[in-house]
Amino acid sequence: MLSVGDFRKLCDVIYRRTGIKIDLKRYDILKPKLEKVLTQFGYSDFRSFFHDFRFEKNPALIQEILNTVTINETYFFREKYQFETLISEVLPRLHQLRPTGEPIRILCAPSSTGEEPYSIALSLLDEGRLLDARDFELVGIDIDSVAIAKARAGIYTPRSVQHVPPHLLQQYFIQRTDGRYELVDFLKGVVNFQVVNVMDRQAMRRLGRFDVIFCRNMLIYFDEISRREVAMTFYELLKPQGAVFLGHAESMNRIVSVFRTVRSGETIYYVKE
Ligand SMILES: C[S@@+](CC[C@H](N)C(=O)[O-])C[C@H]1O[C@@H](n2cnc3c(N)ncnc32)[C@H](O)[C@@H]1O
């Protein structure tokens, strides 16, 4: 049902809507999955599906297609040194700068299935003093509604939690009879998860302003124009002296020049002056 030409057309619309550049090499893997979605939604030919997709006739169809093409790979304490720099350097500095009583707001865009914002929450709990001194708000967004549902459920495979320090695993997870690990209830409630497209500037603005933004391992799937758009949205959303963390394969200097680069040990982060 889905030829290479159809796939190209579909990828083009997805790119314009989300910034995601889908490699043509993924055709063989994605073809059966996408065809399954088309069948589920009652389409027997690409033309009628594509008409409805392009003209946004069915939000549930659009969401299902996006859920199919996203790559959600993540795990707890991925690039752990970044969380250490956040806790030892970036948050103490922001704590000094911000008026007492004002919460420090941290955004994970994208959060995928939640491991990243929960790793920040666990790092804050482990350190303890910052949490005693002020409130923090954690927001996690992703375009993939299935990933966000999993983040809210807070149930993880042994592989996903393998880098969680043992004392934190012991204290904040319950091992289930199926071998998976479930976060304790209060932790599930500390992150506000939402389905949001980072390319949708209005929706991003509605999230409010932030002190820290984690944007790791998403921009690698974007092209230069979309990366720039997202970087400028983050610049707008960040409060002065706020910081952005990117994945280790990503560099803000290759995207925009509005941030000051800070190197601290292995970590690089970008500050809005
Ligand atoms: C590889 S995961 C990265 C997760 C986490 N930040 C990490 O580094 O472990 C990439 C995520 O980006 C999300 N994504 C892709 N395009 C997006 C967009 N336009 N808006 C929001 N999320 C998007 C995907 O759904 C996927 O869950």
Quick structural gist:
The protein is built from 12 helices and 10 strands. It is an alpha/beta fold and 273 residues long. It folds into 2 domains: 4-69, Orthogonal Bundle (Chemotaxis Receptor Methyltransferase Cher, domain 1); 80-271, Rossmann fold, CATH 3.40.50.150.
Structure in words:
This protein is α/β, with parallel strands linked by helices. It has 2 domains: 4-69, Chemotaxis Receptor Methyltransferase Cher, domain 1 (Orthogonal Bundle); 80-271, Rossmann fold (3-Layer(aba) Sandwich), CATH 3.40.50.150. It has 12 helices and 10 strands. It has helices at 4-18, 27-40, 46-54, 59-69, 80-97, 115-127, 129-133, 145-153, 166-172, 185-188, 201-206, 224-237, and strands spanning 104-108, 136-142, 155-156, 173-175, 181-183, 191-195, 210-215, 238-246, 260-264, 267-271. Helix 12 (224-237) links the parallel strand 7 and strand 8 (238-246). The longest helix is centred in the first third of the chain and has 18 residues, at 80-97. The mean pLDDT is 97. It binds S-adenosylmethionine (SAM).
Number of strands: 10
The CATH C-level name of the largest domain is Alpha Beta
What is the approximate shape?
Answer: globular
The secondary-structure class comes to alpha/beta
Proportion of beta-strand residues: 15-25%
What number of domains?
A: 2
Mean pLDDT figure: 97
Q: Secondary-structure element sequence? A: HHHHHEHHEHEHEEHEHEHEEE
Q: Could you tell me how far the N terminus lies from the C terminus, measured between alpha carbons in angstroms?
A: 52 Å
Order of strands, main sheet, comes to 6-2-1-7-8-10-9
Largest β-sheet summary = 7 strands, mixed
Each distinct ligand: S-adenosylmethionine
Q: Count of DSSP helices? A: 12
Q: By CATH's scheme, which homologous superfamily of the largest domain applies?
A: Vaccinia Virus protein VP39
Q: What is the CATH architecture assignment of the largest domain?
A: 3-Layer(aba) Sandwich
* Helical residue percent band: 40-55%
CATH topology of the largest domain, anyone? Rossmann fold
Point out poorly predicted stretches.
none
**Radius of gyration in whole Å, from Cα?**
20 Å
